[in-house]
Amino acid sequence: MKIEESKNSGFILVDCLSCGNLYEIADFRNDQFANVVSNILEQDRTCPACEMRKALDESAEEDRKKKERTAQNLPELVKKSGIPVNYSHDRNTGELFAKPPVYFTAQWFWLNRHSHLLLSGETGCGKSTSACFVAAKLLLEEKKIRYTSLRRLLADWRSAKTSDQSYAAEKMLSDLFGQDIVIIDEVIGKARVSSSGEELLFEILESVNCGSCHARIWLLGNFYSGSIEDTFSDPAPVRRRLQENFICAFADKKTQKIERLTVWQE
Ligand SMILES: [Zn+2]
After folding, report:
1. Cα separation of 129 and 97, whole Å?
2. How far is the CA of 12 from the centre of ligand 1 (A)?
3. 20 C-alpha vs ligand 1 centroid, how far in Å?
4. Which pick of 15, 63, 77, 130 has the fewest CB atoms within 10 Å?
C-alpha cells in the first residue's frame, strides 16, 4: 500500500487498488487498531470514484437482469392482463407480434399512451391489436395492464355487486383504477347498455374526471354520430366527461390516418 501525507491534518492519502489514484482517508497509523486497519486496507482500497462506478455498474446489471426476466415472463404477463391471444400473437407463427399489425394505429396509441383515449373505427383498422401491441410493450416496462370487453366488464361488475363479499364492487373498481392502463373494448355495441352498465361506465368516467382513477382508460369501439345518445339515457354528462378528459379519434382504414373526433357533438 502506498501512503502519502495529505495537506489536511489528520488525513493521509492511499492508492486505490482499482485505478491507482491516491485518495484521502483518516490517518489510522497511531490508532489502537492500526494493524487491523492496515490489514484490511491491504486487501480492499477503493477510491470514492471507483466505489460509485461499481455501484452504478451493479445497478445497471441488476436492471438488465430484471428486464430479461420480464421479457421471459411476457407471454404469461400478456395472458394475465386479459389480452386475447388473437390480439397479441401472429396467427401464422403463434409468436407474440414483433411488429404492430396496423402501424398507423399502433403509432397513435404509443404517442398518446399517457392519456385517456377513445378510438373509433371500423373492424380491421387495428384498434384492438394496436392497443394490445402497445400494452404488451408497456408490460415490458412493468406497467400494470388490464384488457376487457365492455360486456365482460359488466358481467364482472354484476357478479361483484351480487356477491356475498362485502365491498366486492368497490374492490373491483379500486383494482381497475389502480392499473396503469385499462383497455375497454367493444364499448359501442348493437344493444343499448343496461342501466347497471350505464352506472359502471359513468362511474369510470367520473373517477377519471375527478382524478381518483390512476389508470389511463382506453375506450375502443365503432362509435358513430349519435352513439352516445343511443347508449346512454342521460348522454350530456357522458359527452362532457369524454370531451374534457379524453383524446377522441377515428382510425380511417382508407387513408391510414387518425383523425380527431368529436363524439360529444350532438
Ligand atoms: Zn479508484
Report:
1. 9
2. 16
3. 6
4. 63
Alpha carbon separation from 18 to 12, 21, 22, 46, 72 (Å, rounded): 18, 8, 11, 7, 35
Q: Cell numbers at residue 4, please?
A: 502519502
Q: Which domain holds residue 56?
A: 1-74
Q: Determine the distance separating the centroid of ligand 1 and the alpha carbon of 17, expressed in angstroms.
A: 7
Distance in Å, CA 59 to ligand 1 centroid: 18
Is the same domain home to 37 and 89? no
Condensed to tens digits (0 to 9), the pLDDT of residues 38-90 reads 999 999 999 999 999 999 999 999 989 988 888 888 889 999 999 998 888 88
What's the CATH number where 179 sits?
3.40.50.300
> Do residues 88 and 61 share a domain?
no
* Ligand 1 centroid to residue 1 C-alpha, Å: 13
Centre of ligand 1 to C-alpha 49, Å, is 6
Rg (CA), the chain: 29
C-alpha 36 – ligand 1 centre gap (Å): 22
* Highest mean pLDDT pick, 119-123, 145-149, 260-264: 145-149
Residue 156 included in any domain: yes
In terms of domains, do 49 and 122 share one? no
109 lies in the same domain as 240: yes
pLDDT, position 265: 57
